[in-house]
Specification:
- There is one protein chain.
- By secondary structure, the chain is an all-alpha fold.
- It is built from 18 helices and no strands.
- The radius of gyration is 23 Å and the shape is globular.
- The N terminus and C terminus are likely disordered.
């Protein structure tokens, strides 16, 4: 295997990188085109609608396309939840057994995710994204039919979703039971991981239908509400990006400077190439090997980097927490449903737990959002179709926020356990000791990425 990697390092890695990026970019372009086309069709549909029934036109008749996509996501919620919870509990146990660094990292990620959750709640309740849309059409109808034989047939053949809360309860029991079994439980855990890989592969196949689902959902929303829908979605996206920026600069930057006296903007400049890679793939997974190498070059000891970075990739969900918060509030406001603070918190805590172990998997964000709504407010589940079209535009901010959180956590862990070369940190961040790209055959890591890019 190593000899194969050693030969033709110039040509082979570049080919692998191009394949991965092209695949992602084609889907990205398709989603963008579908959203723009959906907006145009929706505006045309509303403009040509009967004034007596403005919300009933050829554009709103495309709504089942979004519903079918959401049903496919809903079909996979239970297996995704089961596999991620069981493997997630195994990861927690492994991190804790590693010792002080693993336990400290878990506590830190829990605290920072709570901060992210709180900030998302505050901003979401301040902006009220989606308010005024009143998408009554997205509430489940009592008839159970769409009026279109083809759409009804497709909806009928998709298996109904398995209840989420019982699945979560069983998964937690299985996870802890497997841990109590010790080595005899390892084959079971491996089997669950294989099943998880299969489920995620199916989920990624479903995500290739995102352009169709996005087109139908956006066309129906704009056809029913006009340009107000576009404005509401822009408010959500801009508000989310600004919230992530504030979280990185103020919260992460403040904590980093308080405990290490390291400027977060210098750290981000040092990781500039990784940010470009993440932005182009919408996945922080793509930069995982480079982050490990750069944190070690920065002066953090290898054992600390080896524990903190992988743990962060499973349990550091700062950007995801903000996204889930604001997306949930958007769906609720758009459908005219008011959730009190207690209901919001319980919903989002469930989502954070359910998303453990699914970081970096295509469609994981939408699946987690759908799982939380199905478990707590099933009447809002169909509103996920509205998010399909704009979810992809927010995935970059999620990935960049999570990646920055992992980098900050690594420096913090090294400082707290005194496993960091502080003078070297200053030299590296000042540019006096630059990272030598030749020391790492980075392209090999792009040939077989561990996971597909984050939610489309």
């Amino acid at each position: 295997m190593s000899s194969q990697r050693g030969e033709s390092t110039a040509a082979k890695p570049q080919t692998g990188r191009k394949r991965g990026l092209d695949k992602t970019h084609w889907l990205y372009i398709a989603v963008i085109a579908a959203v723009l086309l959906g907006v145009v069709i929706g505006l045309i549909g509303q403009a040509t609608a009967d004034p007596k029934t403005p919300t009933s036109n050829f554009a709103t008749a495309l709504k089942p396309l979004g519903d079918i996509f959401v049903d496919l996501i809903k079909m996979l919620i239970a297996p995704v939840i089961f596999c991620t919870i069981v493997t997630g509990i195994g990861s927690i146990a492994k991190a804790v057994t590693i010792g002080k660094v693993g336990g400290l990292a878990l506590i830190y990620f829990l605290v920072m995710s709570t901060f992210a959750l709180a900030i998302g709640l505050v901003v979401g309740n301040f902006l009220h994204p989606g308010e005024g849309l009143k998408l009554q059409a997205y509430k489940p109808s009592g008839s159970g039919g769409t009026g279109n034989a083809l759409f009804d047939f497709l909806i009928e053949i998709i298996p109904p979703g398995i209840p989420v809360l019982p699945t979560l309860f069983v998964a937690i029991l299985v996870g802890f039971a497997v841990q109590r079994m010790g080595k005899s439980g390892e084959p079971i855990l491996r089997a669950v991981k294989v099943a998880q890989a299969l489920v995620f592969r199916i989920l990624m196949m479903v995500m290739w239908l995102a352009p169709i689902g996005a087109f139908g959902a956006i066309a129906a929303v704009v056809g029913a509400t006009g340009f107000q829908a576009v404005q509401s979605m822009l408010v959500l996206m801009i508000g989310f990006y600004l919230t992530c920026i504030v979280f990185i600069a103020v919260v992460l930057g403040g904590v980093l400077y308080l405990f290490t006296r390291v400027n977060i903007f210098k750290l981000m400049k040092y990781l500039g190439r990784e940010y470009l890679l993440i932005f182009s793939t919408s996945s922080s997974e793509a930069a995982l090997p480079r982050l490990i190498a750069k944190m070690e070059h920065l002066g953090v000891s290898k054992p600390v980097v080896g524990v903190t970075v992988p743990t962060g990739y499973s349990f550091n969900l700062d950007g995801t927490a903000i996204y889930l918060t604001m997306a949930s509030l958007f769906v609720a406001n758009a459908m005219g449903v008011q959730m009190d603070m207690g209901e919001q918190i319980s919903l989002l805590v469930f989502m954070i737990i359910a998303s453990k172990g699914a970081a970096g998997v295509s469609g994981a964000g939408l699946a987690t959002l759908a799982a939380g709504l199905q478990a707590h407010r099933p009447d809002l589940l169909n509103g996920v179709g509205v998010i399909v079209g704009i979810d992809r535009f927010m995935s970059e901010a999620r990935a960049l926020t999570n990646f920055t959180g992992n980098a900050v956590a690594t420096v913090l862990m090294g400082t707290w356990v005194k496993e960091i070369d502080r003078p070297k940190v200053d030299r590296v961040l000042s540019g006096a000791e630059p990272f030598d790209e030749a020391t790492m055959n980075t392209d090999d890591h792009f040939e077989q990425p561990a996971k597909e890019p984050t939610a489309v």
